[in-house]
Amino acid sequence: MLVSQHDNTTNASAQSGVSGQATGTSTRRSEASHPAAAPKVVFGPAEIEIRTSAYGQDVELDTAKPMVEETIKGADLTMTSAGDGITDSAKFFGKNATHTLAPLPSSSADATEAECTRSLQKNATMEVDGLVQGRRLCVRTDEGRTAYIQVVSSPPGGHAVKIALTVWDTRS
68 to each of 3, 26, 41, 128, 133, how far by Cα in Å? Predict the structure, then answer.
C-alpha cells in the first residue's frame, strides 16, 4: 500500500508525541506542491455503437455503463442524422441546447481528463459534426463528469457510428 506524504507526517507526529501548527503547515505546503490526482475512470476505455436516426439517439454517460436509446430523460448528448439516417450527416448535440461539447484537434493519442477539462473551458459548443473516423471530442455530463469520445468508425452510407469512450468521475 502506498502511503502519502500527509500520512507519513501524521504517523511521525503520533509516534513522537509532537503535535501542533508545524505539522499542519508542513502538510499544507506539501499538498500545495503536489497537484490533485486526476479523477478515476468510471467507464472505459471501451467501444459502443450508436445507430443513426433522423429522430436522434440519446446517450447517457452518468450510468455505470452508458445507455443509448431513442429518448432518455437527462441524457448527456444526442446523435442525429439527416432524414435518410445515414452516417454522412451524423452529428452530436449537447443536451438542452447547452455548451457541453468540445472538439479536439486530430491526434492518434487518447485525450486525458485534464485535456478535456481545458478544452471544455475554452472551446465548449452545442454541436459537433463531421463524425468521421478519428474525430475527437470531450463532453461535460449533466452530473459534472468529463468524457472523451473518439469516432472509431463511421462508414459512408452506413447506419451506425462506433465510438471509443472514456468517462471520468467528478473532481472532488
Answer: 41, 49, 20, 18, 20
